Amino acid sequence: MRAIFFNSNNQGFHNSLPLGLLIISSYLEEKHHIKCEILDLPMDNDEVKKAIGNLNNNNLLFVGFSTMCNTFPKTLYLASQIKKKFNNIPIVFGGPQASMLPRQIIEHYNFVDIIVVGEAENLLDKLILSIKASRAIESIGLIYNPHFGINQIKNNNPQIVNTADMDLLPEINYNIYPNINDIDEFEIETGRGCPYKCTYCSATKFYQNNYRLKSINKLVSEIINITKQYNTKVFSLMHDNFTYDKRYIKKFCNSLIDSNLNIEWACSTRADCVDKNILELMFRAGCKNIFFGIESGSDYIQKIIQKNLVIKDAIEMINYANLIGIKPTVSFIVGFPQERSEDLIKTINLFLIFRSTRPRFKGIQIHMLSPMSKTELTNKYFSEIKYDGFLSDFSSVRNLTEWEEKEIKNFPEIFSSYYYFPNKNISRQTYILLYWILFYSNRFDNFFRLYYLTLEEGAACLLFDWFSKISIHIKDTSHIKIDESTVPLVADYLKNFVESNLSDNEIKFKLLDVIKFDLWLNYYCRVDNTECFLSKYNYTAEDSEDYLLSLKQDEGLYAYYFNPQNNELKSIKLFLTESNSNNKKRAKIF
Ligand code: B12
Ligand code: SF4
Predict the structure, then answer these.
(1) With a 6 A CB cut-off, is 241 part of the ligand 2 pocket?
(2) Domain spans in the chain, listed from the N-terminal domain onward
(3) pLDDT range class, residue 445, cuts 50, 70, 90
(4) Does the pTM of the predicted model rise above 0.85?
(5) 2-144 and 184-380 in the same fold
(6) Sheet of strand 2-6, all strands in order from the earlier edge strand to the far edge
């Protein structure tokens, strides 16, 4: 017997392990002797045709799909095409998106035979039994299409099923994942659920606030095994809120230190679930990166969305982590329906503070809020949500087909993440412009730093005012997209902003030059090696002159950079001289 699973990710996420599918496949292989295959989700119609052409239905028990909001239209399309070709093969959905709206999905999409709601481990035996018998077994969590050999959907009130003990979960056989050798940072599940109740969060619904961790022995022994088997020392410890239980974290860190494994690891947590001592201990135990969801820089919004971070305390912890050598990744969200101009300005301000901080953070993310299915926020504002075709990164699938767009428009409940919450204080155009500019701000890092250090507190306000002003005239936002090709357009908007808003000529010309320089850095890195963009970009004062020397430059261009030791802005004039052996022009300090 065989089963095929399609991941909810596309090829862009090859470096990320589909832990859910791996855990299910490992269990099915071991306990049910079902050979499992995990495939990438095709991203366009040609890829769908190819995937179906390659599909072999010999001994195929079912085709399973892991579902996520952003790839859900593509998942449905693929499933429909598989059903067309292999009518008798059951289609099984699971994962975060299908779990939120199982009934609606089954009702609208006849080709979906079964949806496994919530955590699947406890349901796998029943799933296999019922597929084999082609009949439903009365249980919570498995939702059947009436066409799947039964007369009615059995359970009218599905509960999300929890697996009680993390240590009892099936062992993962990572070799099932075809790209296992491409993984640089090995993901390990450390536990599940989060006790907080942020109103926009989908995970809190999925796990129903049931916070769990693997025992320290189990976790450390898994790390040791993976270190040996895959010869890796770099881990990502997956949990939405890894440090919530501080006693656990202390014990875990001490046991890593005692083990002398010398691994590097990253995790996610809230800024109020760490303190300085814990951060220091985590650093000593090998923690190199922490993802902190901050969402808003406004204490008012923090309360409204029930995130309840105290911004000044969050800044202190995040900066402290950075100072001691744990690189933070911080994440912001704009577009809350209750957001006022002053709240958005506070978020932009904090974003700019972090963007200007040295040493640089690992990442500063900005997201446009997406109404995720069945979250408290979406339930409350569902009647107001709108679709305008602008895709935030939460619906980050490009090139929607006609069929996909039609479905999105027809079923807002199922595809709510493609919609947005209108805001009566801030126009949609202003949001789109600001989000887009800040999304690509990593490409204009020197500009944003110089701009923020020059204007300080006034920087965010000026940016917001200008973009609200010009957005009135932008009726068509189709040229504004989260798409690499729009980076030069971001530069044009920034130049326009500087020219119209800064009167001091000296600083104005510097800022315009920095935009040009940043754009040029993008060009250089994109042409030569897109992958290495960030690492190349992260030059330091010590290596920056050498680094800049090795780059190709426009004649007579000034490059600016900050010396982190004294925070002084340095400028050097560069011009093109000769070609090196790779036929690349070199810049020389003038
Ligand atoms: C790791 C992670 C990622 C990784 C890898 C995802 C992956 N391949 O699994 C990366 C970084 C790539 C990622 C990216 C994104 N993510 Co993400 N991610 C997570 C995170 C933190 C953990 C997922 C995980 O590994 N869980 C552990 C495993 C064991 O659980 P699981 O995958 O849910 O699988 C279990 C069940 O769901 C079920 N199951 C899953 N699939 C299937 C299939 C079948 C057939 C069956 C029977 C059962 C089943 O069985 C498993 C065992 O119980 C979750 C948050 C969370 N706690 O769930 C968010 C989460 C899944 N991500 C989310 C989002 C929105 C995104 C992005 C869109 C974010 C963005 N702006 O870019 C992108 C989209 C990527 C893409 N699809 O193209 C949302 C999804 C919400 C939704 N309703 O769909 C979540 C829930 C975060 C949140 N708080 O809202 N993500
Ligand atoms: S703290 Fe994070 S994981 Fe927990 S509910 Fe809030 S957003 Fe979700």
Answers:
(1) yes
(2) 2-144, 184-380
(3) confident
(4) yes
(5) no
(6) 35-39, 2-6, 60-66, 91-94, 114-116, 142-144
Query: Which of 23, 60, 66 should be mutated for ligand 1, with most atoms under 8 A from CB?
Result: 66
Mean pLDDT for the chain overall? 85
What value does the mean pLDDT take over residues 490-508?
Answer: 92
β-bridge mates for residue 4, sequence order: 37, 63
Asked if residue 202 has its Cβ within 6 Å of ligand 2, the reply is: no
Mean pLDDT of 147-161: 58
Short-list 372, 93, 368, CA closest to 206: 372
Measured CA to CA, the distance from residue 108 to residue 410 in angstroms comes to 10
Distance 194 CA to ligand 2 centre (A): 6
Q: Does residue 541 surpass a pLDDT of 90?
A: no
Ligand 2 contacts CB of residue 238 (under 6 A): no
Q: Is residue 13 within 6 Å of ligand 1 at its C-beta?
A: yes
Of the chain, the end-to-end C-alpha distance in Å amounts to: 70
Nearest atom within ligand 1 for CA of residue 114? 47
Q: Indicate whether residue 9 lines ligand 1 (CB < 6 A).
A: yes
Quote the radius of gyration of the chain (alpha carbons, Å). 25
185 lines ligand 1 (CB under 6 A): no
- Measure 10 CA to ligand 1 centroid, in angstroms: 13
User: What does the angle CA 246 – CA 248 – CA 249 come to, to the nearest 5 degrees?
Assistant: 65
How far apart CA 419 and CA 428 sit, in angstroms, is 12
The answer to whether 191 and 173 are in contact (CB under 8 A) is: no
Give CA–CA dist 9/397, Å, rounded: 10
Q: How many CB atoms lie within 10 A of CB 469?
A: 12
pLDDT tens by residue, 299-332: 999 999 999 999 999 999 999 999 999 999 999 9
Range scoring the smallest mean pLDDT among 8-17, 36-45, 215-224, 316-325? 8-17
Q: What's domain 2-144's architecture? A: 3-Layer(aba) Sandwich (3.40)
**Does the pLDDT at position 236 exceed 50?**
yes
Give 176's Cβ-side CA count (13 Å radius): 29
Ligand 2 atom at minimum distance from 306 CA: 6
Q: Is 371 in the pocket of ligand 1 (CB under 6 A)?
A: no
Phi then psi dihedrals of residue 516, to 5 deg: -60, -45
Ligand 2 centroid, distance to 50 Cα (angstroms): 38
Task: State CA 56 to chain mean position distance.
Answer: 33
Predicted local confidence at residue 537, as pLDDT: 35
Fold of 184-380: TIM Barrel (3.20.20)
Residue whose CA lies nearest to ligand 1 atom number 75: 9
